[in-house]
Amino acid sequence: MSKLTLGSYPHLLGFEQLERLLERSAKAGNEGYPPYNIEQTSNFSYRITLAVAGFAEEDLSITIEDRQLVIRGRQRDDSEGRIFLHRGIAARQFQRMFVLADGVEVGEAIIENGLLHVDLTRAVPETVVQTINIRKG
Asked: Which residues cross the membrane (predicted)?
């Protein structure tokens, strides 16, 4: 039995990119750390919130790479000269990726109370009607 792809459907023209996008999203390999929420804040805006307790502003970076929002965290190891009797809070690094649709723009990022908020907006799609002239060949 052959695998069905978007190219298998003759009415879906030019959607090969969507299939690659789904594969890329599945390969993103986001582990469970740090936990995050995605909320819709209006019809055309969203907010991603990551729990980043222990990370300072300078320990975090937010970039857009090939239509992916990439949030990275790297804590400095400040354990030199310290003796821990128990160490349950590890200096851990992370990378979270979110694939962005065309028209989604990243707004501001705010860190407060151990939470990193990243606001996104989606442009209102414009309805376009185009008439194609038919000519004799």
From this structure: none
